[in-house]
Amino acid sequence: MVDKTLSGLSGSATLPAGTQFVTSRPSAPDAATRVFDSVSPSALPAGPGGTSTTATNRVVTGPGPVTIAASDAGGSVFINKTANEPTTVTLLAGVPVTILDGKGDAATNNITIVPPADGKIVGQNSIVINGNYDALSFEPAPNSSNFGIK
To answer: Is residue 115 exposed (0-12), middle (13-18) or buried (19+ Cβ within 10 Å)?
Structure first.
């Protein structure tokens, strides 16, 4: 049984029952082959400050706003908060990242993504994830604080 298909992360992948997200990455810097990582955010232990990390994936479980860090570059940030609350995510200039609703409650608790203070996301001041388990990938524009969506 298939739960959902996500696309736009780095291609698309069909998720088997029980798996929340599948992302792909090159198997080596110059390799054409891709490796698929299956990640179930609820299975990852929380670290200090309610955040856990695996490879280039970060799972946020603590309350409050989220700020993208340089260490998130090229990875995914799963919003999987223990508390039922909307989330604001602030992007970091020059850092490509994918933001995902890891809890499956974005229809009720929207995830609002905002650029750095002097930037825009496809010409907008913010973009909202408002579908359960939805995801968006952000690609920085060269030499600016602006972002596109992949």
So the answer is: buried
- Can you tell me which residue has the tokens 């599948």? 22
Residue 78: both structure tokens together: 């799963």
Q: CATH number for the domain including 13?
A: 2.60.120.640
Please spell the DSSP secondary structure of 50-89, one letter per residue. GEEEETTEEEE-SSS-EE--GGGTTSEEEE--SS---EEE
Domains identified in the chain, total number: 1
> pTM higher than 0.70, yes or no?
no
Q: Which two tokens stand for residue 141?
A: 């524009």
At 25-71, the pLDDT tens digits run 444 444 443 333 444 444 444 444 454 444 479 999 999 999 999 99
The residues pairing with 58 across neighbouring beta strands, listed in sequence order, are 53, 77
Q: Which amino acid is at 137?
A: S
Phi, psi (rounded to 5 degrees) for 128 = -115, 130
21-26 and 34-39 strand pairing: antiparallel
**Mean pLDDT calculated for residue range 16-28:** 43
Identify the domain containing residue 21 by its residue range. 2-149
